[in-house]
Write a structure and sequence with these properties.
This protein is an alpha/beta fold. The chain has eight helices and 16 strands. The chain has two domains: about 5-210, Formyl transferase, N-terminal domain (Rossmann fold, 3-Layer(aba) Sandwich), CATH 3.40.50; about 215-300, Roll (Methionyl-tRNA Fmet Formyltransferase, Chain A, domain 2), CATH 3.10.25.10.
Length: about 300
């Protein structure tokens, strides 16, 4: 973005939208509703999913198709042809929300006002791939959305707008939905009066939200109950915090903190209260492999886990 680009005010901007999962859909819908001209929607190609591993389109692709928008899903934006096609759109701005591809400098520089990103944290905290989950795991009392000007570094660009919300007690799924709606509204505000949101550099003190690995979802009952609760919430809905019993993986989707002590992982009663390194948890919603979600009571009616059992 050049300094001369600011000062241009438009009632409607010519925009490329770039996003893939559910998190990005509210922003796409909001900028369409605001009357902006969507020149193209860039999204990741369909990926194999489900038991049959058939290619499945992402949430943004499905919504863009329903809205009748032009779709593009290049495997990479690093080749000259893809960059030329992007530049030929003659954009005012690109709006990016969880796209999943690195934007080369040629792409970042092509729109007159650059590329704006909807990021799910209060930057510079939790730059990177999994800001919502990392904020919950760390016990952050607040998190939020940052609208930032993208540059080559990983979420290092200047900030245009920021808004906070509580992260306490929320699952990753619920918090992601909340932040998605918040980010959509904020992006519309920024696009509606671009000069009212001058960029400012990020302060020092960055932390990094590394991609979630499936191994992290195994519950560590040696940790304090508060940390186990964070783990359960951070990995709901995916990949799902779990323990294994009788050769089966059981996901805990929600749980309450409970009063109880014992060997970490020990089942303390006939309602599946489980001892942690300090305190205990009382699971509420669970899921056996390949089955629907159920209450703990429903689980125990057909799958006995006796008091004294030590889970891992």
């Amino acid at each position: 973005m050049t300094g001369g680009a600011r000062g241009i005010k438009r009632r409607a901007m010519r925009i490329a939208f770039m996003g893939t999962p559910d998190f990005a859909v509210p922003t796409l819908e909001a900028i369409v509703t605001a009357g902006h001209d969507i020149a193209a929607v860039y999204t990741q190609p369909p990926r194999p999913a489900g038991r049959g591993k058939a290619p499945q389109p992402g949430a943004v692709q499905r919504r863009a198709e329903a809205l009748g928008l032009e779709l593009r899903h290049p495997v990479s934006l690093r080749d000259a042809q893809a960059q030329a096609e992007f530049a030929a759109l003659d954009l005012d701005v690109a709006v990016v929300a969880a796209y999943g591809l690195i934007l080369p400098q040629a792409v970042l520089d092509a729109p007159k006002l650059g590329c704006l990103n909807v990021h799910g944290s209060l930057l510079p905290r939790w730059r990177g791939a999994a800001p919502v989950q990392r904020a919950i795991l760390a016990g952050d009392e607040k998190t939020g959305i940052t609208i930032m000007q993208m540059e080559k570094g990983l979420d290092t660009g200047p900030m245009l707008a920021m808004r906070a919300t509580s992260g306490t007690g929320k699952t990753a799924g619920a918090l992601t939905e909340e932040l998605a709606r918040m980010g959509a509204a904020m992006m519309v505000e920024v696009l509606g009066d671009f000069d009212a949101f001058p960029p400012r550099p990020q302060p020092e003190g960055a932390t990094y939200a590394a991609k979630i690995e499936k191994a992290e979802a195994r519950i560590d009952f040696a940790a304090p109950a508060e940390q186990v609760d964070r783990q359960i919430r951070a990995f709901n809905p995916a990949p799902g915090a779990f323990f294994e019993y009788a050769g089966e993986r059981i996901r805990i989707l929600s749980a309450d903190l409970a009063q109880g002590q014992g060997q970490p992982g020990a089942v303390l009663d006939d309602r599946l209260m489980i001892a942690c390194g300090h305190g205990a948890i009382a699971p509420a919603r669970v899921q056996r492999a390949g089955r629907a979600q159920m209450s703990v009571q429903e689980l125990l009616r057909g799958f006995s886990i006796s008091p004294g059992t030590v889970l891992a």
